[in-house]
Amino acid sequence: MNDLWSQHTKYLLRRKVLKLFGGAFHIYDGSGNLVLYSEMKAFKLKEDIRLYASEQMQSELLTISARTWADISTIYDVVDGQTRERVGCIQRKGLRSILRDEWIIMDPAEKPVAVIREDSALLAIVRRAGGSLIPQKYHMTMNGAEVATMTQRFNPFVYKLDVDFSPDTMRRLDRRLGIAAAILLAAIEGRQD
After folding, report:
1. What is the pLDDT of residues 85-123, one digit of tens each?
2. Structure confidence at residue 19 as a pLDDT band (50, 70, 90)
3. CA separation for the pair 186, 182 (Å, rounded)
4. Could you give the CA distance from residue 151 to residue 90 in angstroms, rounded to a whole number?
5. What global pTM score does this model have?
6. Which of helix, strand or coil describes residue 140?
7. Which of 6, 78, 108, 168 is the most exposed place for a label (fewest CB within 10 A)?
8. CB-based contacts of 161: which residues, under 8 Å, 6+ apart?
């Protein structure tokens, strides 16, 4: 596994909100160095997100692709860009996520290993009723123990999401799945803003 996935515990994900067509994600390590980059093409029926080591997009590190295009509970396969092996998959809990965002992270055999939930049902309802000024916060847990948090920063021009894996001191969660989940939160849930 690439050293990138094991050497950092904190990341900052940035997505420009006012980009006309498509989108671009920049992911920085805790020191502010760009470690991952992705461009999303506009008008695609199915999500197909590719993460690269730099803006030159020469070294593909991770692929996140939806299995279907019209399902609010679709499964996203996460594939290592170097080995082409499936790392696992991530599924949005469609109807449940209408009121409060919830995602399931699965291993390569599609066995659930972690859950991501929005911080508060009450705050989630307020956000959906037009309170986008209240940033979202997510907790990722494995067997009831927190392994990561993802906290949106309020910024009307740039979507920013702090990703913190430091609660996972035993390194039980594959960071590639955690980063893929953060990208999906920014790409899918971030559209609610």
Report:
1. 999 999 988 655 556 788 999 999 999 999 999 886 565
2. low
3. 6
4. 19
5. 0.86
6. strand
7. 6
8. 12, 13, 150, 151, 152, 153, 182, 185, 186
Side-chain-side CA neighbours of 113 within 13 Å: the count stands at: 19
Any idea how long the chain is?
Answer: 193
CA atoms of 29 and 119, how far apart (whole Å): 24
Cβ pair 149, 111 in contact under 8 A: no
Rounded CA separation 99/154 (Å):
21
Q: Which two tokens stand for residue 193?
A: 């803003």
Instruction: Enter the tokens of residue 86.
Output: 């499936």
| Cα separation, 12 vs 25, whole angstroms | 10
Is the Cβ–Cβ distance between 147 and 168 less than 8 Å? yes
Q: What is the DSSP letter of 192?
A: G
Residue 183: helix, strand or coil by DSSP?
A: helix
